[in-house]
């Protein structure tokens, strides 16, 4: 519990620092909110002054940040300059699509990344070479290009999957999100497969695995209880990093497949300098990254009990 409390406190500190950076960055960017609101029209100085007064733009910078941060802690993310909607409501309406896409991609990364890596480490020959080639391809191919190829092959040419929209209902949404999830997960699968293959290979050559085989322990039991389990520590770190980065990468895929998620909302808000929306989405991404990393750290104790004991001593 002490360790968990320290990590949550650290996460809160990261969120506060990140919120200040995001808030500062938006106001340091070219242009200003009042210029966007007048849409390029020529208005009198009095009108501009009224707009600045309405949105508190004449207040000192730190005071504006303090008021905004206080509202955030109360669940008020402000109002969109573009639509005048409540930002919390606006983001909440888009969040399910992004979360579903990220969850789908995360499942693909875990299943295919770990599965292909283990098979490549335990079965040498043509299959291993194919996995290595596929991982190299995953490193080299940009996500947006992978999305275009998938859309052309399985959408336009074969007609197996839709290439736009999020669908309605569980089955229809799953069908619509398949191509976007594969495109989003492709680089992650490549990284996880490569790391898994290396970790399992190193564990196979470890002393305790060799001794277990020498004592006559069945090879399948050695593989699952000793080799794969002990190799999952570095793999889980990589998986956590890849999954945490899915939300940040999702905007490219959402834009390509015209999905109604927070990624496409972010792109549109950045283009139109909708400050409140950009700040809210940036904070959500930082929070998601921190929480996923925290979950991965806590899972270490499940994978290897020795990690739990070490943390317990450190906490005391």
From TrEMBL:
Matching Gene3D superfamilies: MetI-like (1.10.3720.10)
Compartments, as annotated in UniProt: Cell membrane
Keyword flag Transmembrane helix: yes
Name the record gives this protein: ABC transporter permease
Domain of life, per lineage: Bacteria
The entry's keywords: Cell membrane, Membrane, Transmembrane, Transmembrane helix, Transport
Segments passing through the bilayer: 7-29, 99-119, 131-154, 174-193, 233-257, 277-303
Domain ABC transmembrane type-1: 95-296
Topological type in the membrane: Multi-pass membrane protein
InterPro entries noted in UniProt: BPD_transp_1_N, MetI-like, MetI-like_sf
Presence of the UniProt keyword Cytoplasm in the record: no
Pfam families: BPD_transp_1, BPD_transp_1_N
Family to which the UniProt record says this protein belongs: Belongs to the binding-protein-dependent transport system permease family.
């Amino acid at each position: 519990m002490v360790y968990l409390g320290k990590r949550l406190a650290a996460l809160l500190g990261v969120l506060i620092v990140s919120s200040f950076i995001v808030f500062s960055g938006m106001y340091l960017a070219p242009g200003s909110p009042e210029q966007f609101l007048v849409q390029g029209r020529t208005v009198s100085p009095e009108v501009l002054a009224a707009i600045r007064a309405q949105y508190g733009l004449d207040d000192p910078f730190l005071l504006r940040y303090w008021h905004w941060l206080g509202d955030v802690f109360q669940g008020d993310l402000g109002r969109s300059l573009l639509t005048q909607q409540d930002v919390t409501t606006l983001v909440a309406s888009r969040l399910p699509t992004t979360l579903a896409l990220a969850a789908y991609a995360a499942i693909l990364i875990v299943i295919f990344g770990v599965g292909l890596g283990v098979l490549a480490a335990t079965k040498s020959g043509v299959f291993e070479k194919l996995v290595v080639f596929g991982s190299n391809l995953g490193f080299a191919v940009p996500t947006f290009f992978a999305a275009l190829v998938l859309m052309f092959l399985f959408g336009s040419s074969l007609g197996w999957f839709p290439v736009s929209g999020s669908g309605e209902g569980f089955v229809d949404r799953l069908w619509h999100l398949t191509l976007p999830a594969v495109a989003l997960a492709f680089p992650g699968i490549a990284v996880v497969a490569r790391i898994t293959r290396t970790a399992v290979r190193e564990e196979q050559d470890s002393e305790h695995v060799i001794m277990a085989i020498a004592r006559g322990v069945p090879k399948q039991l050695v593989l699952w209880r000793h080799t794969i389990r002990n190799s999952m520590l570095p793999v889980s770190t990589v998986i956590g990093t890849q999954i945490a980065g899915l939300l940040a990468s999702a905007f490219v895929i959402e834009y390509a497949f015209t999905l109604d998620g927070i990624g496409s909302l972010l792109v549109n808000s950045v283009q139109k300098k909708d400050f409140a929306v950009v700040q809210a989405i940036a904070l959500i991404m930082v929070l998601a990254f921190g929480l996923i990393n925290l979950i991965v750290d806590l899972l270490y104790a499940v994978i290897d009990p020795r990690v739990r004991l070490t943390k317990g001593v450190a906490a005391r």
